[in-house]
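Just scan this pair:

***
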Amino acid sequence: MSIFAFASNAISCLITDTLSVWPMPCPSSLSARERDLRSRLHLLLNNADGFIHGSLIEMARRCGNPNCGCASSDDLKHRSQYLGQTRHGKKSMVYLPKDLEPQVRQAIEHFQQALALLEELNAEARLRLDKSKGKRKATKKAAHKKNKPPKRS
């Protein structure tokens, strides 16, 4: 990291901490748990080959050939994998060739891991917000008591 980038980061952290600007906390003001979650999300985003929001769906069907085994037994139906997604409020399924199944499965898993980390980060941010609101409320009460004229007897 260059000295300029380091100084710039330090100044922005100082300003953020001083002014209590929400929602851009300085990394040093984050809890160890939140720093760990952010680090894990960063690693996932950098190392994953892709992210897909959806589900793998297995379809079983008969081909229509009366001489095929699928015509006589449900266990012998032809099976294929599809990616199921809801996009713009519409459900869709896309056929997946066998050679792409492992990659798509991994991308779906990466998406679910990222989403879980984001949910945990959201919970941590909510705790930080609630804590910040509590401090602000206490400060206002103290200032109000301090500026309140004494009661007359």
About this structure: The first helix runs from residue 3 to 19. The chain has three helices and three strands. The beta strands are 55-61, 78-87, 90-96.
